[in-house]
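Protein: Phosphate transport system permease protein
Species: Microbacterium rhizosphaerae
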Amino acid sequence: MADTAIRPPARAAMSRERGRRTGDRVFLGLSAASASLILVILAGVAIFLIIQGIPAITADWPATKDLASIQNPAGVPWPSFWAYVGPLLWGSIWSGLIAIVLGAPVAIGIALFTSHYAPRRIAGALGYIVDLLAAVPSIVFGLWGIVVIRPLLLPLSDFLNHYFGWIPLFAGPVSTTGSTMLAGGVVLAVMILPIVTSITREIFLQTPRLHEEAALALGATRWEMIRLAVLPYARSGMVSATLLGVGRAIGETMAFALIVSPSIRYSVQILTDGYNSQTIAANIVNNWGVATEIQRSALIGTGLMLFVISFGVNFLARYIISASGPDAKRRSRTPRKAGKPA
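Structure follows.
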């Protein structure tokens, strides 16, 4: 009788356990399949870029008619693919640096204001508005840059050139149209605000409440509390958000293509319109429609270089996060055991 009373509950428990194990296996399979799918897609993109770009990368540019027709600023054919892609890589990186220098401090300031200073209602509304910027199409930002930003920056460009023209950054003849790297950088800085702001805001909100209260209890002002408790905790997250913003700025296409005058050259000047460094993405957009087959191969080859640069930015972000994150600090503070070599 006792065995008969015990068996049904035990059987039900075993059934529930089998159900949980089946659910775990299904979830594990779906997760592994999703991770594998991402790797397959990434590998597929890389293989496509390599196969399509190799003909132009390995070609003899001066001897290939369609490639020789791509003139450099000196009016002569490019000697090789690497000479062609070098200024484009520089332009992509340079525009991303300008955007992050202008946009990252503003984004971090907005994140601090919404997380530690603003009343809850204002913080929620401001955060919602900033997040909405991510939904604005790139072409709209480009039109806004043409109509508003370019004329607005002309007086500032004259001022910077007049008083700081001895600095190479502000040297050269000032543009009369506003189609400068400065205008493009300002628009890109606005475009990366949602990414950097949203990530840093969430990181700031994850700061342990006890750390903040301890700093305030010791007599620190709110800014001192942020400087001593919040910013050190969020350092790695701020770096990762900034690098994600760089990745967005480097890969931006339409807005930059509409605003900045195209020119394939090495240049650090940000106030001229004839000596700008074109980006890879904008160069592809401007030339794809009129390119021949081998020229499209060259454009795809430059896209491969942009792909590699994006990988480099992500790897750098990962390295900085691992070197300055909480785990690294914990390892550095763990005492070594006696008898173990350093």
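Remarks: Residues 335-342 have pLDDT under 50 and may be disordered.
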